[in-house]
Amino acid sequence: MSDGHKELQVVYLARHGETAWSLSGQHTGLTDLPLTPVGENNARKLGDALKEPRFARVFSSPLRRAWRTCELARFRGSVEVLPDLVEWDYGEYEGLTSMEILAARPDWQLFRDGCPGGESPEQVVARADRVVDLLRSVSGNVLVFSSGHFLRMLAARWTGIDILGARSLMLSTASLSVLGYEGSLERPAIRLWNDTHHLLARQ
Predict the structure, then answer these.
(1) Could you list the active site residues?
(2) For the chain, how many structural domains are there in total?
(3) pLDDT of 5
(4) Which residues face 80 on adjacent strands?
(5) Is the pTM of this model over 0.85?
(6) E strand segments, the chain
(7) Residues 17/46, Cβ–Cβ less than 8 Å
(8) Contacts of 89 by beta carbon, 8 Å cutoff, 6+ apart
């Protein structure tokens, strides 16, 4: 008989707001960029979209773009900084666009090949698995603030889909996604992905 824990738990994933490099399409791993004014405004709108759920715990990447999004979304008082939530370390590809990388390496795929001088997919998987274990140990709903590629890997590891399949899980800045379980089957599932409706609200 199920204890109902997995049926009830919901994990909200919040990608950080816009930065200069997310706007230009440059790979932003550990470079600690601030939010743009648009990014800050959208982070506030993200907070409005998160007024209703109640969270047992809130976690954020230590990178400025994530914790500032968390702060503007009004979760500063309850957030726990989690180093495993940092974005993929792009190594030599830091600051480059996908087009620049592909011009030199036409067959490159991040979720298969990783980055020279940075992290391999297996290293990011190890971090994501630790986060999944932590999330599943919490009794109640959880909110996570992090970056695009890491959140895509986290969703893949939560659901058990193929790592390379994470490349198809596109994420916009200041978007909301929801992980959970499929009813009484307790099968890990993506319940909502890349929702940006809250960004259309006027302020």
Answers:
(1) 16, 87
(2) 1
(3) 42
(4) 59
(5) yes
(6) 11-15, 57-60, 79-81, 142-146, 176-182, 187-195
(7) yes
(8) 29, 30, 115, 118, 119
For 195, phi then psi, to 5°, come to: -80, 125
Range of the domain at 16: 5-200
CATH number, domain containing residue 112: 3.40.50.1240
- Residue 105's contacts (CB-CB under 8 Å, 6 or more residues apart) are none
Is residue 177 within 8 A of residue 190, CB to CB? The reply is yes
Collapsing DSSP to helix, strand or coil, 190 comes out as: strand
DSSP state of 35: P
Radius of gyration of the chain (CA): 16
Q: How far apart are CA 144 and CA 135, in angstroms?
A: 9
Look up residue 195 and give its two tokens.
């929702």
Q: Which amino acid is at 195?
A: D
Element (H, E) at 44: helix 37-49
In this predicted model, what pLDDT tens digit does every residue of 25-36 receive, in sequence order?
A: 999 999 999 999
Q: Give the confidence band of 24 by pLDDT, cuts at 50, 70, 90.
A: very high
Per the structure block, which two tokens stand in for 182? 């499929």
